[in-house]
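Worked Example 4.2. Read the sequence first, then its structure tokens.
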Amino acid sequence: MLEIPHLYHLAIAAEWDPAATADYTTSTVGRTLEDEGFIHLSLARQVAWVAQQFYVDSDVVLLEIDPAKVTARVQFEEAPGTDDAFPHLYGPVPRAAIVAASPVPRGADGAHDFTGLLPDPI
């Protein structure tokens, strides 16, 4: 069986409630699991690209998700306009699967700075 590394999701900081206990159901900016049919996730190497494409004007929280603790299917699918397959979760993220929620600072250039928040590339 293929082992999936930790997965990541960017949450809008103003919408993230660390005290919530319900499953997480935001798919992407302005869209829910119900709207989209799945929750957009990323591998560590994809997070900065996602932030640059979709979250440039938003303060975000990086959610680290343990795939062993999700109960729905994770499927890798190619994103339109890319040559990369992104993980999609076809169900909610159980709160117990969110092992870290880290506010993402901005660098001097205003871009999101993931230094120290993601594992080093292999």
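Now turn to a second chain, presented in exactly the same format:
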Amino acid sequence: MSKTTDRYRPGQRVIVIQQIPHGEGVWSTRVAGSVERYEQRKTGSWYAHAKDHKLWLDRLTVRKDDGEIVVCNLDPYTRVEVLEEADSSVPLSNDGAEIVKEAVPEDQEGAADAA
């Protein structure tokens, strides 16, 4: 079972910068896109004295502009920059997708109400 939080919300534009220290330097990678999901999930790894005796990780699922889905495990070497706040006025479905209503032309608004 996963635990969701409100730290990052679906639709927010973010850049995730991850760094891996090694030997004499640092490897880094960047992922930019919109947040699909942010949750804490337990791994299959055992870790003493943790909840359910498992290691829990923060996971951020990001959809890149080309449609690719990337799941980032957030750790102390990860920095997440929020570029845009998710628009709370936009209704979202249960899976976090934006619900889009078709626009009604102005000359047909009254006709739709009368019907």
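Notes for the reader: The first strand starts at residue 3 and ends at 4. Residues 20 and 51 are 26 Å apart (CA to CA).
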